[in-house]
Amino acid sequence: MLSNATITLSSFHNGKTPFLTVSDAQNRHTVRMDTAADALGVSRQTLGRWVDGSQNAPTAALRLLRVLYLGHMPWDGWEAFRLAERPDQEHRRRWVILHDEIRQEWPPERLALVAYGYDAADAMRRQMESQAQAYQARIDLLQASVTALSTRQAPPIPCAEIIRLNDYRTGGR
């Protein structure tokens, strides 16, 4: 049995098939040893050595097992979230995200909508900043022209190019 502060690996077999049990303080998952070894990119013998403690498992492999089989999120700030399989309305298995304290389930569609909302808000913010910069440039140019005209100097560009008559004829469109 191997323990790494947050994860414990153990194995058992029922006849020919060896199984791996991955557990932490709250969750436990059992999977075929071959399936876990394939997911980790190692042989079943290597995984067996990690379990019996004759060889230390790489930290990355233990983190991957936590993500794959215990549903832990691998990012800072996501410690209270878990990935879990739940049946949907048609009794099909699907992945949802759970929170330890809130007790809500977020299916992938809901997360996609939230992400889309953040992306749309960011695009709108960039567009507004771009428009604000364009308006500020026009205002600066207009101020420079007014200053030049009030001191009886030539403006930086003709006033007709700063204040376009088409803007007034079409209602500013």
Task: Describe the protein in words.
There is one protein chain. With 173 residues, the protein is α+β, with helices and mostly antiparallel strands. Helix content is 47%, strand content 23%. The protein has a 4-stranded antiparallel sheet. It is elongated, with a radius of gyration of 31 Å.
Question: What keyword list fits this structure?
Answer:
three-stranded antiparallel sheet; about 45% helix; 6 helices; alpha+beta; four-stranded antiparallel sheet
* Global geometry: elongated
Number of strands: 7
Strand count, sense and barrel status of the largest sheet are: 4 strands, antiparallel
> What is the residue-averaged pLDDT?
81
| Secondary-structure element pattern, one letter each | EEEEHHHEEEHHH
Strand content bin: 15-25%
User: What is the helix fraction of residues, given as a range?
Assistant: 40-55%
Intertermini distance: 72 Å
Counted by DSSP, the helix tally is 6
Give me the Rg, rounded.
31 Å
